[in-house]
Amino acid sequence: MDFASLRRPIAGVALIVALAACSGGTGGGTPSGNTIKIGIDLPVSGADASIGVTTQNGAVMAIEQAEKKGLPGGLHLQADALDDAVQGVHSPQQGASNTRTFISDDNVLGMIGPFNSNVAKAEIPLTNEAGLVQVSPSNTNDGLTIGPDAASLRRSNPTVNSYFRVCTIDSRQGAAGAQFARKLKFSRAYILDDNETYGLGLANVFEADFKKLGGTVLGHDHITKNQQDFKALLTKIAATHPDVIFFGGTTSNGGGLIRKQMFDAGMNNVAYMGGDGISDPEFLTVAGTTADGSYYTVAAPNAQKLPSAQQFVKDYQARWNSPVGPYSASAYAAAQAIIAAIDKAIRQNGNKMPTRAQVLKNVAATSGLQTPIGTVGFDKYGDSTNPILSLWTIRGGKADFVNQLNLKT
Protein backbone atom coordinates (compact mmCIF):
# COMPACT_ATOMS: atom_id res chain seq x y z
CA MET A 1 0.00 0.00 0.00
CA ASP A 2 1.11 3.53 -0.72
CA PHE A 3 0.65 5.84 2.23
CA ALA A 4 3.13 8.45 1.04
CA SER A 5 0.47 11.16 1.21
CA LEU A 6 0.30 10.83 5.05
CA ARG A 7 2.47 11.88 7.10
CA ARG A 8 13.82 -5.59 41.40
CA PRO A 9 17.29 -4.10 41.77
CA ILE A 10 19.14 -4.13 38.49
CA ALA A 11 22.90 -4.48 38.07
CA GLY A 12 24.63 -1.20 37.38
CA VAL A 13 21.73 1.05 38.31
CA ALA A 14 19.28 1.05 41.20
CA LEU A 15 15.64 0.65 40.15
CA ILE A 16 12.82 1.31 42.57
CA VAL A 17 9.43 -0.02 41.50
CA ALA A 18 6.58 0.86 43.85
CA LEU A 19 3.29 2.62 44.23
CA ALA A 20 4.21 6.15 45.26
CA ALA A 21 2.55 7.79 48.19
CA CYS A 22 1.81 11.48 48.06
CA SER A 23 4.83 13.22 49.52
CA GLY A 24 5.24 16.63 51.01
CA GLY A 25 7.77 19.21 49.92
CA THR A 26 8.15 21.04 46.67
CA GLY A 27 11.64 19.95 45.64
CA GLY A 28 13.70 21.96 43.21
CA GLY A 29 16.42 22.74 45.73
CA THR A 30 20.08 21.79 45.45
CA PRO A 31 20.61 18.05 44.89
CA SER A 32 22.79 16.33 47.47
CA GLY A 33 25.48 13.70 47.05
CA ASN A 34 26.63 12.54 43.63
CA THR A 35 23.61 10.63 42.31
CA ILE A 36 21.17 12.05 39.78
CA LYS A 37 17.79 10.36 39.58
CA ILE A 38 15.51 10.11 36.57
CA GLY A 39 11.92 9.35 37.46
CA ILE A 40 9.92 6.91 35.33
CA ASP A 41 6.13 6.91 35.61
CA LEU A 42 4.35 4.16 33.64
CA PRO A 43 1.59 1.58 34.22
CA VAL A 44 3.50 -1.62 34.99
CA SER A 45 0.83 -3.73 36.70
CA GLY A 46 -2.58 -5.07 35.73
CA ALA A 47 -4.05 -4.87 32.25
CA ASP A 48 -1.60 -2.18 31.11
CA ALA A 49 1.52 -4.06 32.24
CA SER A 50 2.14 -5.85 28.95
CA ILE A 51 2.92 -2.54 27.28
CA GLY A 52 4.03 -0.57 30.35
CA VAL A 53 6.79 -2.96 31.35
CA THR A 54 8.37 -3.11 27.89
CA THR A 55 8.26 0.68 27.74
CA GLN A 56 9.88 0.96 31.17
CA ASN A 57 12.55 -1.53 30.11
CA GLY A 58 13.61 0.76 27.28
CA ALA A 59 14.03 3.73 29.60
CA VAL A 60 15.87 1.74 32.26
CA MET A 61 18.28 0.31 29.71
CA ALA A 62 19.21 3.79 28.49
CA ILE A 63 19.95 4.85 32.07
CA GLU A 64 21.95 1.69 32.75
CA GLN A 65 24.08 2.20 29.65
CA ALA A 66 24.70 5.86 30.47
CA GLU A 67 25.70 4.93 34.02
CA LYS A 68 28.11 2.32 32.71
CA LYS A 69 29.63 4.86 30.33
CA GLY A 70 29.89 7.43 33.10
CA LEU A 71 28.96 11.07 33.58
CA PRO A 72 31.30 14.04 33.91
CA GLY A 73 32.49 14.87 37.42
CA GLY A 74 32.12 11.30 38.63
CA LEU A 75 28.36 11.73 39.02
CA HIS A 76 25.99 8.76 38.79
CA LEU A 77 22.55 8.00 37.33
CA GLN A 78 19.75 6.12 38.99
CA ALA A 79 16.32 5.11 37.67
CA ASP A 80 13.43 5.73 40.05
CA ALA A 81 10.46 3.89 38.54
CA LEU A 82 6.92 4.16 39.88
CA ASP A 83 3.69 2.44 38.82
CA ASP A 84 0.71 4.65 37.93
CA ALA A 85 -1.77 1.75 37.65
CA VAL A 86 -4.39 1.25 40.36
CA GLN A 87 -6.46 -1.93 40.43
CA GLY A 88 -4.96 -2.88 37.11
CA VAL A 89 -5.69 0.33 35.18
CA HIS A 90 -3.68 3.52 34.62
CA SER A 91 -4.76 6.21 37.07
CA PRO A 92 -4.38 10.00 36.69
CA GLN A 93 -4.57 10.34 40.47
CA GLN A 94 -1.73 7.86 41.00
CA GLY A 95 0.29 9.51 38.24
CA ALA A 96 -0.08 12.85 40.00
CA SER A 97 0.94 11.27 43.29
CA ASN A 98 4.03 9.73 41.68
CA THR A 99 4.91 13.07 40.13
CA ARG A 100 4.73 14.79 43.53
CA THR A 101 7.08 12.12 44.85
CA PHE A 102 9.59 12.91 42.11
CA ILE A 103 9.24 16.66 42.65
CA SER A 104 9.84 16.32 46.39
CA ASP A 105 13.19 14.59 45.75
CA ASP A 106 15.76 17.25 44.81
CA ASN A 107 17.95 14.64 43.15
CA VAL A 108 15.28 13.88 40.51
CA LEU A 109 16.33 16.11 37.61
CA GLY A 110 14.07 14.64 34.92
CA MET A 111 11.04 12.42 34.43
CA ILE A 112 10.06 9.91 31.71
CA GLY A 113 6.37 9.27 31.11
CA PRO A 114 3.56 8.86 31.48
CA PHE A 115 2.17 6.40 28.96
CA ASN A 116 -1.46 7.58 28.88
CA SER A 117 -2.64 11.06 27.90
CA ASN A 118 -5.22 11.39 30.68
CA VAL A 119 -2.45 10.68 33.20
CA ALA A 120 -0.34 13.36 31.51
CA LYS A 121 -3.13 15.91 32.01
CA ALA A 122 -2.89 15.32 35.75
CA GLU A 123 0.91 15.51 35.80
CA ILE A 124 1.82 18.41 33.50
CA PRO A 125 0.52 21.18 35.82
CA LEU A 126 2.74 19.72 38.56
CA THR A 127 5.95 19.38 36.56
CA ASN A 128 5.30 22.77 34.98
CA GLU A 129 5.01 24.51 38.35
CA ALA A 130 8.09 22.70 39.66
CA GLY A 131 10.16 23.21 36.49
CA LEU A 132 10.87 19.47 36.31
CA VAL A 133 11.44 18.35 32.74
CA GLN A 134 9.16 15.54 31.56
CA VAL A 135 9.54 13.56 28.32
CA SER A 136 6.86 11.09 27.26
CA PRO A 137 7.42 8.20 24.87
CA SER A 138 3.75 7.75 24.00
CA ASN A 139 1.28 10.55 24.89
CA THR A 140 -0.54 11.54 21.69
CA ASN A 141 -3.37 13.91 22.67
CA ASP A 142 -2.91 17.21 20.81
CA GLY A 143 -4.12 19.31 23.73
CA LEU A 144 -1.14 18.41 25.88
CA THR A 145 1.07 20.74 23.85
CA ILE A 146 -1.12 22.85 21.54
CA GLY A 147 -4.08 25.18 21.98
CA PRO A 148 -6.13 26.38 24.95
CA ASP A 149 -5.99 23.03 26.76
CA ALA A 150 -2.19 23.16 26.76
CA ALA A 151 -2.24 26.75 28.01
CA SER A 152 -4.54 25.74 30.85
CA LEU A 153 -2.20 22.95 31.91
CA ARG A 154 0.59 25.52 32.24
CA ARG A 155 -1.38 28.30 33.90
CA SER A 156 0.69 28.24 37.11
CA ASN A 157 3.93 28.86 35.20
CA PRO A 158 2.90 30.05 31.72
CA THR A 159 6.35 31.11 30.54
CA VAL A 160 7.81 27.63 31.10
CA ASN A 161 7.23 24.46 29.12
CA SER A 162 8.43 21.41 31.01
CA TYR A 163 6.68 18.76 28.87
CA PHE A 164 8.03 17.10 25.70
CA ARG A 165 7.26 13.97 23.71
CA VAL A 166 9.09 11.87 21.12
CA CYS A 167 5.92 10.45 19.52
CA THR A 168 3.50 11.96 17.04
CA ILE A 169 0.06 13.38 17.93
CA ASP A 170 -3.54 12.20 17.54
CA SER A 171 -4.41 14.64 14.77
CA ARG A 172 -1.81 12.82 12.70
CA GLN A 173 -2.45 9.33 14.06
CA GLY A 174 -6.21 9.62 13.61
CA ALA A 175 -5.78 10.94 10.08
CA ALA A 176 -3.40 8.07 9.30
CA GLY A 177 -5.94 5.61 10.67
CA ALA A 178 -8.69 7.06 8.49
CA GLN A 179 -6.52 6.84 5.38
CA PHE A 180 -5.49 3.31 6.38
CA ALA A 181 -9.19 2.37 6.62
CA ARG A 182 -10.02 3.84 3.22
CA LYS A 183 -7.00 2.12 1.61
CA LEU A 184 -8.43 -1.12 2.98
CA LYS A 185 -11.69 -0.26 1.16
CA PHE A 186 -13.70 0.26 4.35
CA SER A 187 -16.54 2.68 3.64
CA ARG A 188 -19.02 2.22 6.52
CA ALA A 189 -17.58 2.77 10.00
CA TYR A 190 -19.11 2.72 13.46
CA ILE A 191 -17.01 4.51 16.07
CA LEU A 192 -16.62 3.76 19.77
CA ASP A 193 -14.35 5.36 22.36
CA ASP A 194 -13.56 4.98 26.05
CA ASN A 195 -14.35 8.65 26.75
CA GLU A 196 -10.83 9.33 28.04
CA THR A 197 -8.42 12.02 26.87
CA TYR A 198 -6.57 9.77 24.42
CA GLY A 199 -9.42 7.60 23.19
CA LEU A 200 -11.99 10.34 22.66
CA GLY A 201 -9.50 12.64 20.92
CA LEU A 202 -8.29 9.89 18.58
CA ALA A 203 -11.83 8.77 17.74
CA ASN A 204 -12.93 12.33 16.94
CA VAL A 205 -10.02 12.85 14.55
CA PHE A 206 -10.65 9.50 12.88
CA GLU A 207 -14.32 10.35 12.42
CA ALA A 208 -13.64 13.75 10.86
CA ASP A 209 -10.98 12.45 8.47
CA PHE A 210 -12.92 9.31 7.55
CA LYS A 211 -15.82 11.53 6.46
CA LYS A 212 -13.51 13.84 4.52
CA LEU A 213 -12.20 10.82 2.63
CA GLY A 214 -15.70 9.83 1.55
CA GLY A 215 -16.46 7.29 4.26
CA THR A 216 -19.79 7.03 6.07
CA VAL A 217 -19.89 7.15 9.86
CA LEU A 218 -22.92 5.18 11.04
CA GLY A 219 -22.72 6.25 14.66
CA HIS A 220 -20.38 7.21 17.48
CA ASP A 221 -20.86 6.01 21.06
CA HIS A 222 -18.87 6.29 24.30
CA ILE A 223 -18.48 3.26 26.53
CA THR A 224 -18.41 3.56 30.31
CA LYS A 225 -15.42 2.97 32.58
CA ASN A 226 -15.05 -0.67 33.69
CA GLN A 227 -17.76 -1.79 31.27
CA GLN A 228 -17.49 -5.51 30.57
CA ASP A 229 -20.67 -6.41 28.68
CA PHE A 230 -21.08 -4.86 25.22
CA LYS A 231 -23.74 -7.23 23.89
CA ALA A 232 -26.59 -4.70 23.65
CA LEU A 233 -24.35 -2.04 22.15
CA LEU A 234 -22.85 -4.40 19.58
CA THR A 235 -26.26 -5.82 18.65
CA LYS A 236 -27.37 -2.25 17.89
CA ILE A 237 -24.24 -1.64 15.84
CA ALA A 238 -24.67 -4.89 13.90
CA ALA A 239 -28.05 -3.65 12.66
CA THR A 240 -26.29 -0.73 10.90
CA HIS A 241 -24.12 -3.12 8.83
CA PRO A 242 -20.67 -1.56 9.25
CA ASP A 243 -17.62 -2.97 7.53
CA VAL A 244 -15.35 -1.71 10.32
CA ILE A 245 -15.66 -0.69 13.97
CA PHE A 246 -13.11 1.91 15.06
CA PHE A 247 -12.28 1.99 18.77
CA GLY A 248 -10.53 4.92 20.38
CA GLY A 249 -9.18 3.71 23.69
CA THR A 250 -7.05 1.08 25.38
CA THR A 251 -7.23 -2.66 25.87
CA SER A 252 -7.61 -2.14 29.61
CA ASN A 253 -10.69 0.01 28.93
CA GLY A 254 -12.54 -2.60 26.90
CA GLY A 255 -10.62 -2.66 23.64
CA GLY A 256 -10.07 -6.42 23.65
CA LEU A 257 -13.49 -7.36 24.99
CA ILE A 258 -15.26 -5.37 22.29
CA ARG A 259 -13.43 -7.29 19.58
CA LYS A 260 -14.18 -10.61 21.25
CA GLN A 261 -17.87 -9.84 21.77
CA MET A 262 -18.32 -8.65 18.16
CA PHE A 263 -18.40 -12.33 17.21
CA ASP A 264 -21.19 -13.00 19.70
CA ALA A 265 -23.16 -10.25 17.97
CA GLY A 266 -22.72 -11.90 14.56
CA MET A 267 -20.06 -9.50 13.28
CA ASN A 268 -17.53 -12.19 12.38
CA ASN A 269 -16.75 -10.52 9.06
CA VAL A 270 -16.57 -6.95 10.37
CA ALA A 271 -13.07 -5.54 10.73
CA TYR A 272 -11.83 -3.86 13.89
CA MET A 273 -9.49 -0.89 14.03
CA GLY A 274 -7.93 1.32 16.66
CA GLY A 275 -4.86 3.27 17.67
CA ASP A 276 -1.87 2.26 19.75
CA GLY A 277 -4.14 1.70 22.74
CA ILE A 278 -4.76 -1.81 21.40
CA SER A 279 -1.17 -2.46 20.32
CA ASP A 280 -0.25 -4.30 23.53
CA PRO A 281 0.09 -8.09 23.89
CA GLU A 282 -2.83 -7.97 26.33
CA PHE A 283 -5.13 -7.27 23.38
CA LEU A 284 -4.13 -10.60 21.83
CA THR A 285 -4.72 -12.34 25.15
CA VAL A 286 -8.17 -10.84 25.73
CA ALA A 287 -9.42 -11.04 22.14
CA GLY A 288 -7.96 -14.50 21.65
CA THR A 289 -8.76 -16.13 18.32
CA THR A 290 -11.00 -13.20 17.38
CA ALA A 291 -8.04 -10.80 17.22
CA ASP A 292 -7.36 -11.66 13.57
CA GLY A 293 -8.77 -9.03 11.25
CA SER A 294 -7.88 -6.19 13.59
CA TYR A 295 -5.82 -3.19 12.50
CA TYR A 296 -4.09 -0.45 14.48
CA THR A 297 -1.75 2.49 14.25
CA VAL A 298 1.20 3.10 16.56
CA ALA A 299 2.57 6.61 17.11
CA ALA A 300 6.12 5.26 16.93
CA PRO A 301 8.24 3.43 14.36
CA ASN A 302 8.74 -0.30 14.19
CA ALA A 303 12.22 -0.54 15.70
CA GLN A 304 12.85 -3.85 13.94
CA LYS A 305 12.68 -2.02 10.59
CA LEU A 306 14.95 0.92 11.39
CA PRO A 307 18.69 0.69 10.66
CA SER A 308 19.24 3.12 13.55
CA ALA A 309 17.59 0.69 15.99
CA GLN A 310 19.38 -2.55 15.19
CA GLN A 311 21.94 -2.28 18.01
CA PHE A 312 19.18 -1.22 20.39
CA VAL A 313 17.10 -4.28 19.47
CA LYS A 314 20.06 -6.61 20.07
CA ASP A 315 20.90 -4.96 23.38
CA TYR A 316 17.28 -5.00 24.53
CA GLN A 317 16.76 -8.68 23.76
CA ALA A 318 20.03 -9.55 25.47
CA ARG A 319 19.20 -7.45 28.55
CA TRP A 320 15.55 -8.45 29.01
CA ASN A 321 15.38 -11.79 27.17
CA SER A 322 12.22 -10.68 25.40
CA PRO A 323 11.21 -8.84 22.22
CA VAL A 324 10.99 -5.05 22.19
CA GLY A 325 7.55 -3.54 22.80
CA PRO A 326 5.82 -0.89 20.65
CA TYR A 327 7.28 1.93 22.76
CA SER A 328 10.51 0.42 24.10
CA ALA A 329 12.69 2.31 21.62
CA SER A 330 10.71 5.52 22.14
CA ALA A 331 11.24 5.29 25.90
CA TYR A 332 14.94 4.74 25.30
CA ALA A 333 14.98 7.87 23.11
CA ALA A 334 13.07 9.86 25.75
CA ALA A 335 15.66 8.84 28.33
CA GLN A 336 18.47 9.74 25.92
CA ALA A 337 17.09 13.26 25.58
CA ILE A 338 17.14 13.76 29.35
CA ILE A 339 20.53 12.09 29.82
CA ALA A 340 22.12 14.20 27.08
CA ALA A 341 20.69 17.33 28.70
CA ILE A 342 22.04 16.26 32.09
CA ASP A 343 25.48 15.54 30.66
CA LYS A 344 25.58 18.95 28.97
CA ALA A 345 24.36 20.71 32.12
CA ILE A 346 27.05 19.05 34.24
CA ARG A 347 29.74 20.28 31.86
CA GLN A 348 28.22 23.75 31.77
CA ASN A 349 28.28 23.74 35.56
CA GLY A 350 31.97 22.99 35.89
CA ASN A 351 31.48 19.21 36.21
CA LYS A 352 29.27 19.75 39.23
CA MET A 353 25.70 18.72 40.00
CA PRO A 354 23.34 20.75 37.77
CA THR A 355 19.91 22.18 38.54
CA ARG A 356 16.53 21.23 37.15
CA ALA A 357 16.38 24.54 35.31
CA GLN A 358 19.65 23.81 33.51
CA VAL A 359 18.48 20.34 32.49
CA LEU A 360 15.10 21.66 31.30
CA LYS A 361 16.77 24.35 29.19
CA ASN A 362 18.98 21.76 27.51
CA VAL A 363 16.10 19.39 26.76
CA ALA A 364 14.17 22.24 25.16
CA ALA A 365 17.15 22.90 22.91
CA THR A 366 17.43 19.26 21.80
CA SER A 367 18.10 18.96 18.09
CA GLY A 368 19.77 16.29 16.00
CA LEU A 369 20.00 13.74 18.84
CA GLN A 370 20.73 10.32 17.36
CA THR A 371 18.46 7.66 18.87
CA PRO A 372 17.09 4.23 17.91
CA ILE A 373 13.95 5.89 16.49
CA GLY A 374 15.99 8.31 14.39
CA THR A 375 16.96 11.92 14.91
CA VAL A 376 15.13 13.50 17.83
CA GLY A 377 14.43 17.18 18.34
CA PHE A 378 11.62 19.26 19.81
CA ASP A 379 9.69 22.21 18.40
CA LYS A 380 8.57 25.21 20.43
CA TYR A 381 5.57 23.30 21.74
CA GLY A 382 7.62 20.31 22.91
CA ASP A 383 6.49 18.07 20.05
CA SER A 384 8.79 15.83 18.03
CA THR A 385 10.31 17.36 14.91
CA ASN A 386 10.64 13.89 13.34
CA PRO A 387 7.31 12.08 13.91
CA ILE A 388 7.07 8.52 12.63
CA LEU A 389 3.99 6.30 12.68
CA SER A 390 3.55 2.60 11.89
CA LEU A 391 0.59 0.54 10.69
CA TRP A 392 -0.15 -2.99 11.87
CA THR A 393 -2.64 -5.82 11.50
CA ILE A 394 -3.27 -9.08 13.36
CA ARG A 395 -2.77 -12.28 11.38
CA GLY A 396 -2.58 -15.78 12.79
CA GLY A 397 -2.83 -14.41 16.30
CA LYS A 398 0.28 -12.24 15.90
CA ALA A 399 1.00 -8.60 15.16
CA ASP A 400 2.02 -8.18 11.52
CA PHE A 401 3.75 -5.01 10.34
CA VAL A 402 2.16 -3.29 7.32
CA ASN A 403 3.92 0.02 6.71
CA GLN A 404 5.87 2.86 8.29
CA LEU A 405 5.23 6.55 7.71
CA ASN A 406 7.51 9.52 8.28
CA LEU A 407 5.06 12.35 8.96
CA LYS A 408 7.62 15.12 8.91
CA THR A 409 6.35 18.06 6.88
In short:
Helix content is about 35%, strand content about 20%. The chain has helices at about 50-70, 90-105, 115-130, 145-155, 170-185, 195-210, 230-240, 255-265, 280-285, 310-320, 330-350, 355-365; strands spanning about 15-20, 35-40, 75-85, 85, 90, 110, 135, 165, 190-195, 215-220, 245-250, 270-275, 295-300, 370, 375, 390-395, 400-405.
User: What structural class do the secondary elements suggest?
Assistant: alpha/beta
List segments where confidence is low: pLDDT < 50 over at least 5 consecutive residues: 1-25
How many E-type strands?
17
Second CATH tier, the architecture of the largest domain: 3-Layer(aba) Sandwich
In total, the number of domains comes to 2
CATH class bucket of the largest domain: Alpha Beta
C-alpha end-to-end distance: 20 Å
Question: Helical stretch count?
Answer: 12
Shape: elongated
What sequence of helices (H) and strands (E) makes up the elements? EEHEEEHEHEHEHEHEHEHEHEHHHEEEE
The largest β sheet comes out as: 7 strands, mixed
Mean pLDDT over the residues: 91
